[in-house]
Design brief:
The protein has about 425 residues and is of the alpha/beta class. The chain folds into three domains: about 5-110 and about 230-295, 3-Layer(bba) Sandwich (FAD/NAD(P)-binding domain); about 120-225, FAD/NAD(P)-binding domain, CATH 3.50.50; about 310-420, Enolase-like, domain 1 (2-Layer Sandwich), CATH 3.30.390.30. The chain has ten helices and 26 strands. Helix 2 links the parallel strand 2 and strand 3. It starts with a strand and ends with a helix.
Amino acid sequence: MTRVLVVGGGVAGVAAAVAASERGADVTIAEGSGSLAYNKSLLPNLLSGGCPPAGLHVADLNDISERFGIEVRLGEHVVSVDSDSGCVRTRSGRLAFDALVLATGSLYLPDDLKGVSKPGVFMMRSFDDYLALSRALTGVSRVALVGSLPLSLIVAEAISRTCRVSVFLGEGSLPRFPRHVLGMISKAAAPRGVQLLEGHLDAVVGVKRAEAVISAGTVHPCDGVVVLPRSSPSLPALDCIRGDHGGVVVDDSMRTSCRGVYAAGDCAEVRFGSASLPSRLHSSSLVMGDAAGINAAGGMARASLSRCLALDLFGVELCTAGIDAEAAKKMGLDATEVDSGEDGGSICTSLVYDRTTHRLYGIQVAGPGALSLSDYVSFVVSSGARLDDLAYHESPYLPHFNRDRSPISLTAGQALARARR
């Protein structure tokens, strides 16, 4: 029986362990903390009462032990991996394996924002931090919030039920959402007391507690500051090839460069031509974990990843998959973008594609009915479809859009027309 060791008890780790067990492997999870992880994607729900704390656990410990026969070793922190000998070193000893799945997630980086130690500043790193902010919201009237999209907007929507929010969008946030889409969200958020502001936070100021933030020389009064810190892959010492963002590089089978070692979730980066991309999403972690677990147990599975998001932000439906034009160009693609949002319609579609091959690398749809297209958008990107495939793709009558062709098909047709000029 194949001995599969899964390092990490989060979304990807549990998915890998269950998948390997169902293939007949002898599975052990080594989790460094005292419990299986929380589902981080649900943490903002604590701010609006949308999810009880008990519902945030990735899995029930007794269930996966009894139902799937998986041994769970809590408090077993893996320090290093030796793939040649098939052994990992932990703080308390050693564990042997035939195949290993790294699902160690990510760690938050220290924030260099001045004044973050002041009372009234909430650094959102853990379950306890979200609970603390939830309790404090009744005594706060205006919050300055900084963090990457889309999490910053999700958190802003949750806390806008009790206070006014100013969201600061720093560099690196804007390319993920075209400006007209941010404009749609901004317009919808304004009645809720939420203001979107371009620019970084330079400092938090105040005498005894946070009283204002400074951005580009302008003072913005507030009595609370919420910081969503950046994160980086968390990995034990090992000789696997690392990616552009610090994670372990994997192929679509989740294999790393080390024999018998797989990786999934936040600690992994999927090879993309000469570059690599992280996919730090709940949906990606599940798919990556499933594929890694099956293959670690001797199977043959390939993860079809699209980096897809489906959101409703302040009533604006949005689904997005793949990469934006700026990221595509950084990877050496001859990429361009066609955007139907410039026409001022109620639903906006943008496509990122290679000028020569017409292959789609990114899609974003925003507006009424966009969520109904999320599965389609994900499949189109992950399957490597081309503009030519989409422009003439048969689709049923779509009452959401009051037209006979989907907005994606229409936008692909516009792109092909441009290419022929």
